Protein 1
Amino acid sequence: MDSTPSPSSSSAFDLVSRALGRYIPRGGAAGTRTQASENPAAGRQEQILGAVNLDKDLTITRCNLDAPVFAGLDAAAGKPFVDLLPPGDVPTVTRRLRQVVETGEAHVARIQRLRRGDGSELVVSMSVLPAAAPEEGLTVSVIAMARRLHLYAAETAIGTSLDIGETAQSLAESLLAWGDVAAVDLDFAVWTGEGVPGKAQGRIRLRRAALVPGRAWPEGYVTPGNDLPGEASRLLAQAVLRDDAPQTIVIPDREAVERVLGSPRVVRALVPGDRSAGVACIPLVLDGAPPVVLGVAEVWRRADCPFRDSELFDLQELVARTAHHVDLARQHQREHTQVLALQRRLLPRTGGATIEIASVYQPATPDSAGVGGDWVNSFPLPDGRTALVVGDVVGHGLGAAATMGQLSMEARALLSAGLAPDEVLEHLDETVSLLDDAEAGLAAGYSALGSTCCIALYDPVRHDVALSSAGHLPPVLATPDGHAGPLPVRPHPGLGAEFALREPFDVYTFAAPQGSLLALYTDGLVEDPALSIDEGISRLADAVSTVHPWDALQRAARHVASALAPAHQRDDVTLLLARMIGYRKEDTATWRLPARNDAPACARAQVSAQLRQWHTRDDTRYRVMLLVSELVTNAVRFATGPVTVRLIRSGHGLLCEVGDTGNGRPRVRRVDLLADGGRGLSIVHRLTTRWGVRWTDTGKVVWAEVAG
């Protein structure tokens, strides 16, 4: 072996070798004896560091593996590095090495096994360092995993993810240092995020959460994602819960394994081949009274390498240290599932006769801080318009989800009551401020200040969109002529802004001809570290402009989201596409009448003629004429200015609207038989399926729906 680096060299191999010089003697075994005699402290020091230099073809050119712990590793110059690897690990490690050669980015601290000449294996922490020049290849530094170092490194690695599958996989990879195959089987309730009782109730069910190494396994063997056979689950549970106390068990050889498991089907499901005969089963126990068993970790090894007591102590210590990480991942999984279910319920279901709706919601990656507070919603308003709402609540988790649900439901209720978008945002702003109060807040330590929301109302008769925004990114509108871009909405502070920053919410109205496509979204769709937010919105506009009028809208929404969303989402991705259909011109009729005593008679005549032209049934025509007469009479009596009458023919009946300049809210009251007035609205109430009021800049509109 060439273990003497050139003093003038500055390659990664030489730098590592010089840094390790105090630990790795030069000159082989003789050098080791000399150094130990000259410095007794060095002889007692645990020598665990080494380095191997590779060329671009992954062939060994130099190595510095003189420490005794690396004895038996055949790392001679000219040999392929993959000869040091177990066959099952060759594809993965080769891919990592070539990736470092191609990208020049180091790959640090991978737990890896190396094969000795006698067939035994050495567990190391392997780092791959690129050379300064690509043609010089790369350097592989290895650290033989001493007991305490391995336990520390394993616990650190296992605690880095909140995803329960990744947590189990990290545990299995760490357990591989003690055997040939490692598996982690979790209680199904743990896997799904549910609570686990102290004692199992009913049928025991275990699911394989992780298995290493990854390879082609024998037929019938249980692999990740599959449930263990019922009898296997019961046997494992009984084994680790003897005398109602969780404890580790060891089955030393294949004969004993087959005798304990009994059924050939169970043997095929649990034993990973002929060579791995002995097994140690270590329960994952959550401390408590009584202790809770989350699952079982299994380490398999050859019968000629029995488990020593010290190794079993190490295994139990590692599993005990990391069981709480599994429980944290379980809690995160439960919270993630609950929030995701809430957000799914808020997604719009369908459109209607005047608008087509499609939505996409992609939660953040499982190892992020949790599902965020993004939501979109659409729903028909009683007066024939459609509300489109998008919001982004600050933060993640249950606090954000609770606030999201409250704001979404409050917005729907206020819009259905006839409030304008700016008025609804004023109420939401007050709600967010109230929820920030320490006593009234939904979650301790959580604040929703700065949340954003955008509300758009589509009028299918006027073919326009009226919207208000509280700090949200502008919607993108694509018109039938092919033009697409963000709507020019003036930025506004988010909900709950400081009093000094609060401004009145503006209402913007934009034309939305038939065939237009409106996109509402949250920032997770357009944010990219490599691009500005304006460039992200421009990319969205380009993607929306490519949607053909004949394209299925749900498929188009999924295509747009997949084209723009980052591969590793740290935030939720939310998109709503709305295709404007509207009413045909021949399905609406509008009249403007002066506020005079003859206005009801004029309205009846106009409406009667229009309904005859639409071939409306006589009984429906009679009810509509009576309804319009009562509404116009009230408008003339209690308001000033002209009266507007509008009739809309829809698939489920007729919608009548009477607008005036008054600001009083009509209310149905009990009618006194001796009173002169008060009967008009009672008649309206009986003639219609539903009716209500919406407010405008100049007054109000009373609308009523009559079944066809």
Protein 2
Amino acid sequence: MNNIKNIGIGLLLMTGLFFSSCSEDFLDEEQTNAFSTAYFDTPEGLQALTVSLYGNIRWHFAFEWSYGTTLYGTDEFTNANDLTNEMWNKYDSRLNPAGSTVATGAANGNATSPADLWDQMYYGIASANTIIAKAPTVITDLKIRNRCLAHAYFLRGFNYYKLTAQYGSVALQTEPLEGVVVRNYDRATAEQCWEQVISDFRNAYSLFEGEVYTYGKGITWTKATAAHFLAKALLFRVSERNNAWNSSYKDADLKEAVDACTYAIGARGVLTPNYSDLYANWTGIDNANEQLSEILMSAGFNGDAATAGRFENRTFSFFTPQFSNFSGGWVTRGVWIGAMDFQRCRPTEYSYAVYDHVNDARMWKTFKTVYGVTSVRTPNPNGVKLGDPGIVMILNTKNDNTYNSYKFGASAQGPNWKDDAGRLPEWTIGNRQTPTAGSLTSKTGQFVPNSLVLYQNGTYVAPNFGTTTVCNFFAGINKTDCGSRTGERANSNRDGIMARLAETYLLRAECYVRQGDYGNAMKDINTVRERAQWKNGENRSYYSDGSQAFKTNPLNTGTLATNFINANLDMNTYYLSNPGVAVTTAASNLRLTTFPANLPAEDEAVLTKVGAGSDYERALHFILNERSRELLGEFQRWETLSRTGTLIKRAKAFNTEAAPMITANKHELRPIPQTFIDVLTNADGTNLTPAQKAAWQNPGY
């Protein structure tokens, strides 16, 4: 098969793209690939192809590319000891148009290639092109025709959005090419690409039937979904990355983006009151929290092997520290924990420090800081029992001196190792607050085999406690944990959230900032921050995550059930991390009273480090901080920083692995895949010259 066919510009192949008759939920389809492309000349065929578009977005959660192209190399995440996609974080020579293999320096054969996103997005575009071209004549029922067109325009707009956000100028193909393979393409300008994206989202926005859930509530694209992404595309066009040509668009695009956000906010109502319900309180396949009105778009997954298709959700693997290694065997790996400890995405110091550790509930509803003992080791002079805390991570602040003289660490040398004084390398000292029957209790001097602290003597020491060359001991985030998996290496069954209303508020706030309307920007920011506050009566030391879905499987009994109870202690280190805070269930307050002057201390520290001086710079960087607090790990950070012209500055400031090699005027864009460039020809069929190939490539590659 030619590489050009792999990117979907050419003959539409159904290999791996499954479809059948239309139903209310595309995951309920009895999938088959027994049809030819002639099926698309029937109303039933085009409706089936429309349903299949939902399968294209599952790719984004399927493998190492999910985090490599979206989170690595930013201010929020760096690599841990697993170096599968290290080149995407470090921006070294292995991030190149040809990709990296073991032979060229990749750590293993799973490294993400620049061609991965490129190929899959064009594959979905080809399907959308077929629907857009055929629906006006094939489908006579106007309602069904418009529904199919709305979905096709949306998917094509979304895929071109992803391509343009990552690569800049790309090839625009908007007509189906059945039966031919075209190798002659002009490279559209970035301006032309954004016009195409915006046009497609506008068409989708006008064609969707309001908030009608046509293919399954919670995973269906609606008018609000299109409005959200239309606003994102308009905002991208007028943002800093496009300043060389976008001045004539700014006023109109910002107004249209505000209007689009306003529609989505009005159509979907208020934010979900409890932040935990978005991610932490995931109780099993298709649970009610996957249907929250705040969720504007998600990739749908379930536990039915018959509907698995080409791409299954692997993201549960990527945010968890390597606890089975550094714990010395005290905490073992298993499906009851809800995640595998693949330690791909290690939070940077910034990702902890950007929160108000006392008042922002999002921090403690996101970071997993306690693991229970699942295997008692010997020797055991401290009498540790199953279900005792086995790993405790104290997320203190830079100005906290409580733990300056304490010794922390992991079981690096195994359970029998002792230091020169004959002590086991397993310490923690202090109070812990745990929920028991809804109340708060404390236990002083609790021994824990493994522990870390963020700061001692004002120095960030957390990376010092790992057991490998690069730190593998850190507090991971819980947004992808899935306790419904049936085996340790089984795939996740939870939906992957791709857009939600809290981001819509922050998009509108950014538009207001760009218009100089700081008052309205602050109102939208405060809407998001009010939800993030502790509510009256909340137990601040309580923790939950998607591991709890393990309890809904009736087969998980006996030893498995015991392991679940021992591993998941429903506690965090809020009070250990904030030692001056008395036990309380009072509400907290995160509301801004001024903006962009006199911002919270955690924000002022960031603004100082990045040199944000003007009101506009302060406001923009504050919104980037707020996006971190609200959207941490939600697979879009790289494009946000690239869009706002802040990627280089913030990566250098906060990502020590990325800082040495990230380069301005190069790394704001990804390399165009060499596999694509090499098969291009001129109109007369001749091969491109080296100069022509170079013109297709982004600067610096």
Protein 3
Amino acid sequence: MTFPDESLRLPSAAIPDGCRDWTTARAADWSAALPPRWTFLRVRRAVAAGLATLVLCVGALVAMAGGLWPFVAAGFAVYVLWVLARPELVWVGAPLLLFALAAEASSKSWALTALGVVVVLGSWALVAVRLRARGEQVRRALEAAGGVAAPVPGAEAPVRRGQLLFVLGFVALGLGVLTGSTAGLWGAAEDQEGAWSATVFLAGLGATALASAWLGRQRTVALRGAAAPVLRVLVRDDAQGSTEVYAADDLAAERPLFTVELTSFDEDDEEDEGDGDEGEAVDDDELRRVLLGLDDDTLGPVREAVLYGAPFDGAEVLVVSADEDPEQPPLMEWSAGPVRPLLPDAGRRRVAKHREQAADSLRLELQGRELAEQQAAVSQVRRWRAGWLDWLAAAFLVSWGLWLVWGWFDEPGFSSWTVVFIPLLGLYGAVRVPMKLAWRVTADRSGVWVTGLRGPHHVPWDDLRFVRRRSLELKIDWQDGGWAVSAPRWAWLQRRRGLTHPYDALAAELTAMRLDATLRPTGESGAADRGRPVWPVAAVLAVVWVVALVAAR
């Protein structure tokens, strides 16, 4: 991974006349209009979803205990999601929550009601500060553009923004209706309260998706409807599939201004649809290429680009940028998600993290090659297997499952959902635990063998795409499939102690073999080296689990 001082050049024909550079000074003026960090300007989607789920669980417990209406409990969970991820909807959600709290105040705890009112009013004020700052961001972006505007290229293309969200929204609404219509079938009164909480939450998720789709589509249509302000910038694709936007003179990519998810529209798509099997093969190859790129841990090169549209928190934009292949025409990409600004300190920390990851990747690459060279000299077959971290992961999984089951057995009665959930949980564990304890990866001269339920699977070296560790997961990907296993990881402890996670070492060594044929083992592995099928152990565990449940109840 490199941080070049030269960017890929955008052809002059793709740059509108009079288009100004968005320089570092002008970009800093735009960043100064961003709201403070405490307005939840940039919260990870996983964090927002996790907090909303946590609030839902807590609210459902309070509702089942009689402290809240289930509608209010689920409403708070949806409201948290809106505050963090879709602040425009808070103007609707906050008054509704206040009205609901007032309606139930006479029959509920005044302390709980007061706490709810304070939370709603406080978050409403934070969102107001964040939304008010958007107007100043637009004004400063227009000043940076100097009044230069240009017709948006590809404006006649079909508007695809929001299609997936519309589908997801209607699916969530349908699940909410299904849950609500069957709430009366749940046995205990507490379960019925929980079912109504889930109904309102699913309906809120559906409304969120539909509103997000509508807002994104409306802003995209507005961008296409008239000449848009233009700015020259630099862009780079990050490892998570988003695009980082930099000032035009930030050649070293030191300070990203914002990130945005982009998607391209191929004007020849409709023609390709009529090409039969050949067109489908091209689409499959392109899909595999895109998915492989999303799984890549490396950053893309810095590229010159033209930004269409005044950027602000939540904006929709069009980016015309230089292609990584100089022989290809410029890329034209529409935003597939809203603009997400980065405060100056956050942008610098992001770049510092990129550099740290690059240094770690280089260290692991050298370490993996050195280890592969050593093993090639002394071993004709290379084997890896589950270690103590995998045993620890299996112990966590079993302990969690037993804790849930113990609570089920400890209840005087049983609710409807436990009848379905507990057996399925045990069957899942019966499959996952043997895989965690008995996985094996073997490399020989013909390729790589990986453990599977039905037996070892052989992957020729030419079909192997990548081997890498991402988060807690070790993933091996090949032409027609993939394999993964997970185990605990503490990155801060590893860096502090100078330790290497076993998954990192495996990925680095196997990657070195994939890239350099001279480092591959020279022998042929036998059946004992490759491991055995896991399904017999999984079947025995599943039978034991079912028999234990029947005998216990």
